[in-house]
Amino acid sequence: MNTEQNLQTADLLLAPWKKETAQPETNRLDVSIAANQLRQAVSALHNARWGYLSAITGTDLGPAAGQMEALYHFCNGAAITTLKIQLPRTDSAVLPTIEDIIPPATFFERELHEMLGFKFKAAKSNERLFIPDDWPEDVFPLRQDFSIEQAKPVEGRQAVEVPEAGRVGDSTFVVPIGPQHPALKEPGHFEFTVDGEIVTAARMRLGYAHRGIEKAAESRNWIQNLYLFERVCGICSHTHALAYSLGVEKLAQVEVSPRAQAIRELVAGLERIHSHLLWLGVAAHEAGFDTLFMYSWRDRETVMNLLEQITGNRVNYSANVLGGVKCEIGPEQAKAIKEGLNYLEPRINHYLGVVTTDTMFLNRTRGIGTISCEEAEEFGLLGPTARASGMLRDVRVEAPYGAYKQFPVSGVTETNGDLEARCVVRLKELLVTCFAIRAIIDNLPTGPLTVRVPRKIPAGETISRVEAPRGELLYYIKSNGTEHPARVHIRTPSLCNWVSVLEKAVGRQLADVPMLIAGMDPCFSCNDRLITTVDAARGRKTWSWTQLREHGIEYYKR
Amino acid sequence: MNTPTSLIALLIFPAGLTLVLTGMFYEWADRKLVARFQNRVGPRWFQPFADMVKLLTKEQITPALSNRFLFIGLPIVAISGALTAALYVPLMGLAPAHSFPGDLIVTVYLLSLLTMCMGLAGWNTGGRFSLVGATRTLTQMFAYEAPFLLALLGPALAAGSWQINIINDYARDHLFAISQPIGFIVALIGLMGKLELPPFDAPEAETEIVAGALTEYSGRGLAMFKVGKSIELIVGITLVSAFYLGGLHGILPFLLKTFAVLFLMTVLQSLLTRLRIDQTVGMWWRFGTVLVLAQILFTILLKGGLL
Questions:
Q1: Using the 8-state DSSP alphabet, how is residue A443 labeled?
Q2: For an interface test with A, which of B274, B283, B287 has the most A Cβ atoms less than 10 Å from its Cβ?
Q3: Most CB within 10 Å of its CB: which of A53, A136, A310, B230?
Q4: How far off is chain A from B265, nearest CA to CA, in Å?
Q5: A3-151 placed in CATH 3.40.50.300
Q6: pTM strictly above 0.90
Q7: pLDDT, tens digit (0-9, with 9 covering 90-100), for A393-429
Q8: Which chain A residues are within 8 Å of B209, Cβ to Cβ?
């Protein structure tokens, strides 16, 4: 089915509830519905297996309009259907929960509630997931009239004590993992109730790495934001900048040259290699196989050096500019990349052999955390985690963007759905990526590196989807015709994959839990984007750089 | 036995200071070899010593929930057990400082004292990671202890004595690693289990339970457990190489044979993935114990002239 037919089907499915429809872009269909009919509309799409719920974007239209919008984005191949609900900016902004229909919606709904103040009728939990526990009630940071003065931490406000779930008897207790724990490379908090070695319940709390990026974006201009979004994630910085650039270029109706697009895909490919090798090391470390960890990270240095040679940076490459790229692939770089790939390909094949034949490692991966294809669809999994369960979810294949039309990659899937399959999918994907990079170097199109993008972006809104190393990355960008974006919403792939960990940890051994967490390749800094830092102990809301520096000097004097 | 020589024997040589320093040297060799296998640079030669000096200068924090007496006492008992065990083994290829019939059993149990103390210490501190770690430490002990002892009994039965010194002399003419290969392998792997080296490091799996039973320990207490571990390492290696690699007589054979065992252990450490605790226990009781029992039965039959 092509995109048009898909949209027609969606239109038919939603016919009973639609108030009005619009087609902002050729691959999108916006359907306005009433809040009380949301569940029926979502069920209709869900039961007909029309795509998957990709994100829920909340937008505040401002005190003047007095309205807020919730946008439920469903993606099916390249087609996107958005259910649009407008509600007043008051306490009566109540939406019915859909978490019983689509489990990952829990996280989207929590985000909408905590950031914009939507209320969800009959939601299972009202615990805070993202914002700090001492954040005042009824202060919503993404509202347009939010000011930093409102965000005074409430002295002594603590998380609601939740009765220990999954309690069997006196022998059970909670093992807290995080926010600071050797298993976690980034801060997150998990509570696993264990009975001996068996996990009987799991809870989680995010938000320790919130930096308020979505809010900050609204006060920066379009170009500044490119560098801001690059810093959402330290591992997949290029894909964030890429998703943003593609979106802005679509809004500005700028055609980027094929050469720039090809270089973008090339950098994205190198980034994928670095990300997956990093992941392999982390997974091996969680399993207690440090030798594999050390070797895969050693080989990762090759690709880090290549990225440095091409872009000048190792982490935030900033290869993108609005309207193109700023780095050129000359003969020298092309040669270096080829040499790097000549070294890496045999290594990747070697690791593929290790993860599929090493008996001791297989003891810890084969048949563990198995997710069937049906479950993967129900949990709304994305990226390699979904592909390991035999569900082809890959934006590069389903809805090729940029240079992926000219230099396609083939989608890699495995059917077992266990941790072993997730290792295999990621490693095979690297071989496919290496192949694509070679094709790009050999047939690099000609053309300018950049084209001009206006300072003011025409009013409009767009959805830009990119396949990050962890799965589909979605940017919703809205412009009101000024130098600043009106709203940018980011939905990162890690957020969708959490459900699988929490569901699959229960009943397993505690020793398997770090592997399960690592198996979906979580990225906490991607999850957490939105809050201004609040220092609870000292009662000061935001610290300037000078204050921080002075505090540091004072602290170490003692 | 006059007092000054005993004191020197106890505090400086062959036990005491020398033992502590040698233990640290072997710990360094272990860390360095594993690092080289993993393509890392590895620590400098004085690193274990520097670690201990640093730990000794640090504050010792006693958790509020723990019994203070036990918290401070357990590391002392642990290190004493390891040091005492060293008296009965042919360190440096010299004759053991003390020897009596049946000292093999005493030595093996003195070595287990360290593990028991770690288990108790984890239970005593009351932390969640410590509790899980302590459970795992003790569970694992019950898994490897029997096969390890049985593996050491093989040469003892052949030599007809349970005295380490006599077995050591008997082994001079009998290379048990060849005649009792299963026993050698089980003893080697059992030693790795005893020392909680990978792949048997589930009790201190950092990605799950931080540092296991010793999570709450700091400063002196931690230093003592660490030194105890180093001593256990050298005593264990000495025991296994004395029994299975043709006895230890003289300093050069001692160094060669113990390093051969250490080298084998580091190779295994680098190659293998950590086992879950249920897998560890399953492996020991399903394969280790059964195999070593078969070996012992064979030895007894051979000894009795029945074969």
A1: T
A2: B274
A3: B230
A4: 14
A5: no
A6: no
A7: 888 888 888 888 888 888 888 888 888 898 899 999 9
A8: 175, 510
